[in-house]
């Protein structure tokens, strides 16, 4: 079946440093979504990417969808303590999302 | 507007007991999903529904059953709980773009 892998599993950064998480799918995706889960909370939808090579920005967050539609990345510029949490990518397969394993981000002040 | 509501929030079961987790959404979403989240495993899809009266198996359906008798409700049942079912269970709903998750049910099976 479809698999979605994310790296790294954990990332610790100093506040102000940049952060990137990478997502790779074993199959071509129709679209990819990104979610953030704060510690003790539930996943919250951030964004959806649909087109090959698409790049979207949300303030300090930049999302990219690969040309082959099998990989994606999330880059955070100048991290803040409010960025702490686990970031999940999720690949859309027909009528359901398959989530990646997530990257846990810790930001030290 | 409550969004997605899950009940209960916490539950402890003994091995072999049964229980039902309730998910209710007030957004008129067609699609509803049950996921379980375990440390280091991400979110794994248990069962899902693309509309009232429909259900389908996800990645890890064994030991669970579901029903979607009303559009706004999606029930997850455990007929005979096992320690391997200790997890955090999340319900989600969608119109096909971006999932809205409930706050989760933390289930411990002893």
Describe this structure in words.
The complex is a heterodimer of chains A (109) and B (110). With 109 residues, chain A is an all-beta fold. Chain A has no helices and 11 strands. In chain A, strands 2, 4, 5, 9, 10 and 11 form a 6-stranded mixed sheet that branches. Chain A has a 5-stranded antiparallel sheet with strand order 1-3-8-7-6, with no helix packed on it. Chain A starts with a strand and ends with a strand. The mean pLDDT of chain A is 94. Chain B is built from no helices and 11 strands. In chain B, strands 2, 4, 5, 6, 9, 10 and 11 form a 7-stranded mixed sheet that branches. In chain B, a hairpin with a 5-residue loop joins β7 and β8. Chain B is globular and about 35 Å long. Chain B starts with a strand and ends with a strand. At the A-B interface, β5 and β10 of A face β4, β5 and β10 of B.
What are the SSEs and their pairings?
The complex is a heterodimer of chains A (109) and B (110).
Chain A: E1 4-7, E2 10-14, E3 19-25, E4 32-37, E5 44-49, E6 55-58, E7 61-65, E8 71-76, E9 85-93, E10 96-99, E11 103-108
Parallel strand pairs in A: 2-11
Antiparallel strand pairs in A: 1-3, 3-8, 4-5, 4-9, 6-7, 7-8, 9-10, 9-11
Chain B: E1 4-7, E2 10-13, E3 19-25, E4 31-38, E5 42-49, E6 56-57, E7 64-67, E8 73-78, E9 87-94, E10 100-101, E11 105-109
Parallel strand pairs in B: 2-11
Antiparallel strand pairs in B: 1-3, 3-8, 4-5, 4-9, 5-6, 7-8, 9-10, 9-11
């Amino acid at each position: 079946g479809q698999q979605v892998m994310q790296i790294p599993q954990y990332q610790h950064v100093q506040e102000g440093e940049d952060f990137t998480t990478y997502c790779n799918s074993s199959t071509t995706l129709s679209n990819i979504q990104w979610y953030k889960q704060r510690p003790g909370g539930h996943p919250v939808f951030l964004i959806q990417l649909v087109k090959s090579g698409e790049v979207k920005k949300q303030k300090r967050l930049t999302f990219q969808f690969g040309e082959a539609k099998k990989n994606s990345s999330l880059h955070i510029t100048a991290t803040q303590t409010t960025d702490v949490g686990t970031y999940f990518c999720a690949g859309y397969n027909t009528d359901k999302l398959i989530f990646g394993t997530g990257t846990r981000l810790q930001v030290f002040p | 507007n409550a969004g997605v509501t899950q009940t209960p929030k916490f539950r402890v079961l003994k091995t072999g007991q049964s229980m039902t987790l309730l998910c209710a959404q007030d957004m008129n979403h067609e699609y509803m999903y049950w996921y379980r989240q375990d440390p280091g495993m991400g979110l794994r899809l248990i069962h899902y529904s693309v509309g009232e009266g429909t259900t389908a198996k996800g990645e890890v359906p064994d030991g669970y059953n579901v029903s979607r008798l009303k559009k706004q409700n999606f029930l997850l049942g455990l007929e005979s709980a096992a320690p391997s079912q200790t997890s955090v269970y999340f319900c989600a709903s969608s119109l096909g773009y971006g999932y809205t998750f409930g706050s989760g049910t933390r289930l411990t099976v002893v």
